[in-house]
Amino acid sequence: QVPLVESGGGSVQSGGSLTLSCTASDSIFATNAMGWHRQAPGKQRELVAGITIGDGTRYADSVKGRFIISKIHANNTLLLQMNSLKPEDTAVYFCAAHPSMGPLVTGQGGVRWGQGTRVTVSS
Questions:
Q1: Which region holds residue 114: left if phi is over 0, alpha if psi is between -120 and 50, else beta?
Q2: What is the pLDDT of residues 68-82, one digit of tens each?
């Protein structure tokens, strides 16, 4: 069983919106902080947004006020609602999970990753 399965990427014009989804197993969803990282061509992977087991959230400065991370507990789904998209948001977006927020932020120390979904924003 693949632990994290993403969907919802695609192409959109600048100013548009997309919502990414990530479905996790019961055990992962209940016991892990979860988040979204992205990796643009030629750049390092970076945290976009994270959410704790208790639904506390944190965002990269570049997406504050535009992106919203949330969870649908009934079906173990993590969402990333992306509004007012910009060309610089173009990247492959990865769902991530770890029992602690610290490693989730850095992307190291045993983080579980999804397969990635591509988002392309054209100007």
A1: beta
A2: 999 999 999 999 999
